[in-house]
Amino acid sequence: MALTLIVNGKPYAVAAAPETPLLYVLRNELGLLGPKFGCGLAQCGACTVHVGDKAIRACAVPVGTIAAPVTTIEGLGTPERPHPLQAAFIAEQAAQCGYCTSGMVMTAAALLKEVARPTDAQLRAALDDNLCRCGAHLRILRAVRRAARSA
Amino acid sequence: MNRSRRDFLERSGALVVSFGLPIEALAQAGQPATQDLDAWLAIATDGHVTAFCGKVELGTGIETALAQLVAEELEVAVGQVGLVMGDTERCPDQGPTVGSRTLQSAGPQIRQAAADARQTLLNTAAVRLGVPAASLAAKDGVVTGPGGLRVSYAELVGGGRLDAKLATRGRLKPSASMTVIGKPIPRVDLPGKVHGSHPYIQNLAVPRMRHGRVVRSPRAGATVAAVDAVSVAALPGNVRVVGLGNFVGVVADREEQAIAAAAALRVTWQGGAELPGAEALPAALKAAPATERVAQVNGDVEAALATAARTASAEYFVPFQMHASIGPACAVADVRPDAATLWSATQSSFLTRASVASLLGLAPDRVRLIWVEGSGCYGHNGADDVTADAALLSQAVGAPVRVQWTRADEHGREPKGPAMAIAVRGGLDARGRVVAWDSRVYSPTHSSRPDGAAPGNLLAGAELGLPRSVSNVGAGRNARPAYRFANDRVRLSLLEASVLRTSALRGLGSPQNTFAIESFMDELAAVVGVDPIAFRLRHLQERRAVAVLEEVAKLARWDPRPSPRGDRATGTGRGAAFVQYDNSGAYVGMAVEVRVDRASGKVRVERVYVAHDCGLIVNPDGVRNQIEGNVIQALSRALVEEVRFDRQAVTSLDWASYPILRFSDVPDEITISLIDRRDQPSLGAGEPATSPVFAAVANAVFDATGARLRSVPFTPERVKAALA
Known about the structure:
The complex is a heterodimer.
Chain A: E1 3-7, E2 10-14, H1 22-29, E3 48-51, E4 54-57, E5 70-71, H2 73-76, H3 84-91, H4 101-114, H5 120-127, H6 137-150
Chain B: H1 3-11, E1 15-18, H2 23-29, E2 39-43, E3 49-53, H3 62-74, E4 81-85, H4 102-129, E5 137-139, E6 142-145, E7 149-152, H5 153-157, E8 162-165, H6 190-194, E9 210-215, E10 223-228, E11 240-244, E12 247-252, H7 255-264, E13 266-270, H8 283-287, E14 290-298, H9 301-307, E15 310-318, E16 330-335, E17 340-344, H10 349-360, E18 367-371, H11 383-397, E19 401-404, H12 407-413, E20 420-428, E21 434-443, H13 459-463, E22 488-495, H14 510-528, H15 532-538, H16 543-555, E23 572-580, E24 587-596, E25 603-613, H17 620-639, E26 669-674, H18 693-705, H19 716-723
Parallel strand pairs in B: 1-8, 3-4, 9-19, 17-18, 21-22, 25-26
Antiparallel strand pairs in B: 1-2, 2-3, 5-6, 6-7, 9-12, 10-13, 11-12, 14-22, 15-20, 16-17, 16-19, 20-21, 23-24, 24-25
Helix pairs in contact in B: 3-4, 10-11, 14-18
């Protein structure tokens, strides 16, 4: 029987087997390419999406276990109506290769929902499991602080 | 001009501006169609400008900087300029994107092409308007002249394609007239990257595309004894098993099906070589067969050492480290019987095309490689190997195939940055000046890039038993000190083989050599009890080198005094280091402040100061972003990174076994001073700030504790051992 998922506010019938990681369904079946494959081990955060309000690692969660609406970076904001974090990442030029960026933004968005004005320690702790190899960390921190101020 | 390029230009009704590279440069680049006068720029009927560039975007923001060069000289808005990069059918071969040389070497070519285009448009307008070209001016894509004369680039081009092979050169703008070069223009790629729409190679899909995965040997040198196709026969996805020599792979309809099939496929391997194990380093490096080279000799170093007032010696070691890109390598290939298309995130479109063509048994001109941006690469990672994987699988199954490596593939199989050992002896005279410097560098090669004549340089090619051709390069990068000593000698032991496959990692031998030179200078300064920056300045003559050291001392409010500091109770210290990258590139002066927890051995780098001179700055925020990235990535290499391997293979196969620096460990602040030399050529900024980091940290730990760290990474265990 086909699974049904709500992603970015829209219902989808999913053909994949229930044990398929959510990430492959989002990317290959729904064409939502914002979340990235980084490790498949829930270690790097490149695949981060929201299930309900919670940031989860889509590479390690079977699609059959998803019981709440899913939000990806595409559903967070648009170029016309960017989420404050997306605007702040551009304002701070907070990326290089950008492969980790959507995971960074989604993790930070979940944090800001929970803690509107995080301390520097809370911010670093929340992002600690999102890896960036280009070394954009200080810019990313600035961007999240900027978004927290503007929200 | 080849057909697809001509088609593109005819479709867009473009003005094509061609300019000739010097013939020797073209010959060097291996471009066959030298007589054709390559096209670099096209101006469409809507005024949009396309620049064709053989170099590619590796995440550094180079696309934006190159667009600025075009916009400046062609007098159009940056937003009007688009780049096509690394497509073997549409772009000139400007060599691989390596060595921080894109702005340095490709930049001037593209900038000149834009200036030529402006002059051509002015000349064309002069004919059209019946006035002298000298009376016309170009701005914002429009040519204007006396009495309100006005014609846009688009109107000038309107009648279709105009091929303007240039006889005269456009004059480059003097720095005083520049309005775009030197401005922190926001990166053109970031909106797509923050909205999830940027077209990475990992996102590419083509019609009828299937998914492939490669199953590789668990031991170096092992060969296939048997492949049991029955083991995957019951799996869904129309699984095909491909076995070619020691190259084994699977192809399935869906990605998760290919992953499942690769995991289930039973392959029996036999034989293989035993590795010496990571614990055998660095002694194994010094004992390995090597070609000996002398990189520099001045005076008589042995005699000077024999008569020196004081002498010292030390040995430094950096282990194998990896690129560790966040996105594992990915490629798509569509191989037909007589031609192929490859989509690849390679740094070397033309070399990789030639090498894969050779692997497929096709002539290079029957293969088109279309570059697509990947995850940041920092050197030669898995991008080329995965291109070969996809090509072989596509050829075998007769359909387009996408391959994305697993995390373990990327960590385990990417070519590693080589381990290096560097031994240094120094002699000081009675006045505290260095009178003898003798160093010896032991290193495997820093490059094993694809080669059309040696497809075995690709993993899949080696598995097919094809020839490999690698010479030892890169070990000498920054092996020669920038300091002037009366007697010195720099020797290179270029290892003939390596325990692990190695290739270019950001900076090649420069970070390791700079670690040795800048640590040993610090050790000598301590021997004579002189402030480390003052000691360096005693031996440094060049104005720009002196300037970055003086500037960073000011920036860091450097307190002139010898190291180590008297009071070690605080655990805090400062260290400095200097490099002129590759002895001919950008100048970097660096200072860091560390806090060492004596109980745990943990080193935290709290603040980093950088004075940076890369000549004419095209985009200052882009340079700052590069410096910050270099510093943080190099801190990660300095503090935590070491590739582990056992007697069989690499065991650092994920982010737990090969950790990198996280948010909680990055510095509080990186303070940068850019020295903009508007009258000097641009020098690359993609690597130089990596090189001084290892030594700056080691020197700061010495300042804080009196303990000298000579082996990277500076793990808590190593620090505790040094403190004991």
